[in-house]
Each structure stands twice: as structure tokens, then as C-alpha cells.
């Protein structure tokens, strides 16, 4: 699903609340675990010879049970109860777009669609509704992916019983092994795939395809995108697709992974039962040779620059990538191999830190970074990516190469290595802490990924142990040697993307890459780490004036003398995981009409401007040994700081947030960098419908309110450092503060940390009354759509139809019902526009009901499709809205929306972030607490009549219509931008 700036929100997680007054241990009970019986003794499990560990000395993760069937199917199963009552099934077929012949391009992905269409275990179009009725949402829980090397079918099934697991694995096996590949089904799925291809079209795909063709020239990957070509898709026949299926969908190419709330013997027995009779057709066909990157015969051995391409895409920011290419080699995945990888990861981290230092200190590039990747079993490469600040890409390239040249000339300082090692160590320790609550779906995906790259898996404890075993080798000499290995290769390939023709030729790029550069040590930073104890205090620590339970799940509210209020929730079922969320001020309500550009630069620039005496580099060194983070966003009614931490680092996390409010630094460099980034991005918004939606949809749905207009380059250029400081000093100082600390905490220690940070702040200024009461408007509805244009492909368009709803916490219950109505509406559009007509790939409907403001809510439908079909979309959407208002949904339609909601909420309530999302704002708005007890009932007991009544109330009018059409003159525009003074 596409995401649009501020225009949409993810649906609030749902929760099953049996009784909100219940003690937390009640939620740890597991009523769903499927135990093994005497019959559950898998015949082909191999605990003493797990196939994924053959040939390696990596310690076996004994929580996995591996097996191999006589027909060649390999499987891996594991008991996991996160979330409880769920299984995660993956069926991976070792066949992707690289396995296609020239006249089969796109067949692997097309077959993925047809597997869900009809099979031996499902009639036409029955699969998705079936799993929805069991609580599995389409796209999130039931899906499939096609890559160059594999096709993987996914199912996350909630509310499991032995019968539903057995039946679901049986049905999935039937889908994969015996799809109905008829001409009729092909005729339905080809238009859907073509719609998906069209929706993905545009400059980003063109750039991706040209880049792939350059970097993998001479290899199969260069010409085999999973989406295929129009010619091969339109020329597909049922016989040809069946031949592809018969050739590659064989038991020898299959890996089945099943993780869930059941004894591994049960899971293994189920897999064996439903996959043991699978027989391949004909002789086994080995995978084709994917090829190797090869240097030109006349290449300079010291600087083997090969294929180079200059890609011209109007409106796209300049960017350059070059790669040092090596052949992909199937490795012996042993401990020493992984130690070498870890050394190269630390080496990469040191180089990336230097590149970031150079960018911050006035380098010629906005961003640059290096990374080693193994791509589609086709190459092992080190990629270097940079975004020039100006049209002078050559200076930017020289700047980046000079930093790399220095890294290749002399060993790094031990302090640089120590900073990188500390960050990795914190991450690996966190992996161990989180392993007990790792989701089954994530564990299943790890096996699939390991199979894809032909390597083993290891437990988080093994990762940490191996990393720490490398400690004696984290020396300047060894890291220096690892750095040199990163930049050794057989051939160098490169692409330069520019918005204007004539800026460069491939010869220019090749010459620039071949010209020697002088090593520059300007980006080295060997300063020692900073101790938090040396930092200035936020203020005088204060004890709370009150601590009181709020009557829900042992949550607690704490108030300090300065008016700061905190919400605490301690849960020991998520070891080492703490979320801190600080809500303050007025959000977009507090922004003046002429401050949109300043506000938009805030999330990019404010955090990076430093605090007190500390600049960005100081903060990086400070955080190297800690688990802290700093996200900042602007919501309709509040500004939000958020960080993920752990109890031992909680005080430091709180200090960073409180210091940002009390002693922000105003380094102008991050502001300049944020402005440059925003300017570079702006022109790209007009190149396809998706970009125009990101640029203008929120602004239009808020009746062209200038606060929500995406700032133009001219507006951004007008923002001075003084303007930025003046505006943000006001916004940071206004309004109440609520601090939520949820997770694995020591309550008393958390209160003490709050007292020395947020409790020590000065009293806050109240929100001005005109700010607190500021409302949002909705545009005038009508049957004639507002029209915007884009400069992209002529067959791309988008349509939106939106209806005003409301806002405010008094309407929490209604907002939940509207979520269900939107999902019902979305299913109808998906069934009509995608499954039946193939006119669109991913139409959807969403509802947004802001709780912090009393207005601004909207329910809207969005589609991307061919321009000539937009009128049909508007007619279909309005017809469905009117039918829902007149007749309501059917009982089955309601159940297809409600059951995934019930099951998703059952899973979500085990994590503290669910409760945080529900309770946030409750310190100053008691409605968040008053309406919490009914949350499950509001979804579970929703009726057809309630849905009809809501549709009648909100969807009977014509709605606000927006269409985004291709520009006839090739220039994209906003038809009404001038009216907003943009």
C-alpha cells in the first residue's frame, strides 16, 4: 500500500481486552498451544543432521526442527508464541525471474497471482475471502513475493486450532502444487499484473531498470525484472505458464517453514502429511547459470572501470552510484567466514561515519554511504552512493573518493573503531534481549532469507558470542585490512542520474572514476567518547507531587510541580524494550499560515542541530554505547518525540528529549542540509501520480490550508536560521507535556529519571486560546473533480474521492466503526476494480479520525489506473458508497472486515506499544481512558445496521473528487497552487 504524507494514518492497532482491570499476568496465559499426541512423531525430521547446517561449524539453533522428505521437500518448524495463537507458514519455491526464458519474462510473478486465483483446494476467487474469515488480512497476513531468485507464499494465521492449521497447510499445499492454470484464469490475472506494472512505472522504475542493466551487464539479472514485459505477459498462454510451473514447482525446489504456537512435532507432522505425496513432472532441471560480472578485456587492472551509464530523468535529483563488483560465490558459512564479515561491517561503519562527518562539515555532497551486498546470487559488490549538493557532480564524487582513499591509505584510529564496535555490541545485545519476543513471522522469514543466500541461521546468542570473539581483531591493522578487502574487485561499474540532458557523458563518468584522487583526512574524527555525567543538568530535579494508578492494567500517572505529566506502564514480557513518547505543544495547530516551510524543516533539522554544548558528532559519540534513538514528528494536535531504549539507558533517553526542549542548539548546518534535501526532492513530486499525491493530497483535503502545503524551493530558500530559531523556540516552549514510558521498566527508577529531566524543566506557557481552538476545513464537494497533472507516463493516473467525517476524542467509538466501514468499502473496490475487471492493482479506502482536534477527519478511496478509466472509478466508488448507505454490507462482508480486526487486536495487545497508542494523550484527555474498555466490543459487536447508518451519515454526498492526469505538454503542475500563495 502506498503511503502519503500526513494524508493517511495506519489504523490503530486493535486489542482484545477481556477485562481491563485484570492483572498483567493474565495476558501471559496461552490458551491456544497445540500439544503433541502419540501420533505426532514426524517420520522425516532430522534433529541430528539439520540440512541448513551441513558443512558449517556454526552452532545449531536447537529451537528449530529440520526435516527432509523423500521427494526432496525440505522443511523447518519451530514453536513460537509471539504473538500467541498464530502460525506463520512460508512455502518458498527456488524459482524467480532469473529462471525465466526470454519469452517467459514475468511468468514467475504471474504464476504467483494465479496460485491464489484457483487451485485444487480453492474455487475461483475463494482463497482470500476464506483466510479473511479466519482472521488473516489480505496483504499483511496472506501474500506472496517474487524476487529474481525465488517465489515465496506467506500466511500468518491467527486464532489457530489443530484443525485450522492442518486445513490451512493442506490448502496452501494444494495452491502451490496444483493451481488451475486455465486460459480463463490467465485472462483475469494478466490485466491485474499489467495494472501492477503500470502502477510501478515511472522514473523510479526506469532508473532501477537502467541501473540493473548497467551493474549486471552480461548477466541474466540485467534483463529480468520480476514484473516482466508487456509483450511476454500479453503473449502468455495457459500452456506456457503450465510449462513454467511444471519445470520449477517441484519438491526438490521447495522449502516449507512453519512457526507457531504448537509443539514442533505437530508442525512437522502436518508439513509431512501435506507435502510428502508431491511428485515432480519429468526430469529435474537445474537452475541456469546466473553469470558473473566481468571486466572489459582492455580494463586497467588497477582501476578496472567497466560499464557506465548516464540516466537523464527530468525532475529527479542528481545521484551517483558506483560499485566494485565481485563474482557471487557460494561460501562455506562457518564461524571464521562470519568473523571476516563482522570485520568488514565495522570497517564500513568507520568509512560511513567519515562520509557523514564530511557531509556535515561542508562537503560537496548531501549524503554518501558505502555498503557491501550480495545481490540475487549474481554478484558480491561494494556499492558507493552519493547525492551531490549541486549540479557539480564531479566535485562531489572527488570529495567522496578522497575520503575513501584516505581509508585505504592509513589505518583508522582506535577510537573510531571503538565507536563502531560499541554500536554493534549494543545492537547484538538488544537482539539477545528481544529474542524471547521475536515474532514467528520474522523467524520464518529468516529461514527463507538464509535459504535464498545459501547460508545458515544462528541464534542471537551465537551472533553476540561470535561478535565478541572478534574483539582481539578490532584493531587498526585488522580493520584496515578489512577496508581494503571491501574495495577489491574485478570490475567497477557506475550510473549517474541527472535531471538535465547534456550534463555528462559515460566517457565523463569513466574519466572521473579513473582519475586518481588525493586522500583527505579532513573527515577523520578521533575524539574520545563523551560521558553523560559531564553534561549540564536540565534543571533542579523535582519529586512528583502525585503518583496514582489510573485503573487500567496497573498503569500509573505521575505529575510534577511544573505541570509535566507522565504515564507509566511496566511489562516484563518484553525484556529490554522500552518506548518513550513525549507529546507536547499544539502540533500543526500552533503553526502560523506563513510558517509551513519552517515547520516542514523541523523534523529534518531540529534534532540534528544539537543540544546545549553538543553538536551532531558529539551526540553520535555519546550514543555509541547506549540504546537510544530520537524520532520527531508533527501531528495535527501535538509535536511528538519518540525513542526506543532500555531501562539502563532510560535516564539518558529522557535527558536527550528534555534537553531538546530546554537547551536546544541552533547549529545552522543541519538547517542548510535539510533545506537542500527538501529542494532536491521537490521537483520529483511532479513526475508521477504518486508523487503528486504526496505533494498535494493532504493540502487539498484540508481545503488548501497553507500550513499543509508542501513548501516550494523558493519558500524553503527564504527560511533563515533566525526565522527557524524564532519559530521553533516558540513552538518548543508552548503547551503541556505528556511523557509516556512503557515497557520493561523499574517504576521507581523511571520516576527518578523523569524527576531529573522533565520534572526539572521550567513551567510551560499555556497554549494561546486561538491555537487551542483552531479547526481544520474540508473542501467543497462536487461531481466535477479537481484536476492536477503529472509529467510521467501517459497511461498513469490517480483518483481520490473523499468524504468529511469528524474528529475529537468524544468520537473514539465512532472512529473505530469507521475503520470497519472503510475496510468493507476497500474490500468492495478490491473485488470490483482488481479481481473482476483488472482495472487497478491496489485500490483502497482508509479512514482518518484525529483525536487531538475536533475536525479534520476524512474517509477516502484512492486508486491508480489508466486515465480513461477514472470516471468508472468515481462511478464505482459513489455507487458502492450509496449502496452501503442504503442497504449496508452483507453479514459476510462485515465478517471479512471484523474477524481480521478481532484477530489483529488479539495479537497486538501483547505488546506495550498497543497500549501506548491507545492511552497517549490521556494525561490531559480522560476520554482516552473512558472509551478504552469498549474497544474490543466496538469491533466485535459491530452490526450491519451500524455500518449502514454510518454510511448514510457520511457517504451520501458526492464527496470531494481529485484526479491526477498526465500532462499533455509534459510539464506537471498543481492547478491551484497559486491560490495558496505557494
From TrEMBL:
InterPro entries: Metalloenz_LuxS/M16 (IPR011249), Pept_M16_N (IPR011765), Peptidase_M16 (IPR050626), Peptidase_M16_C (IPR007863). Residues 80-222 form the Peptidase M16 N-terminal domain. Residues 237-422, 719-898 form the Peptidase M16 C-terminal domain. Residues 1-28 form the signal peptide. It comes from the Bacteria. The keyword Ribonucleoprotein does not apply. It holds the Pfam family Peptidase_M16_C. Keywords: Hydrolase, Metalloprotease, Protease, Signal, Zinc. Transmembrane segments: none annotated. The keyword Protease applies. Belongs to the peptidase M16 family. This is Insulinase family protein. It comes from Aurantiacibacter sediminis. The lineage of its organism: Bacteria, Pseudomonadati, Pseudomonadota, Alphaproteobacteria, Sphingomonadales.
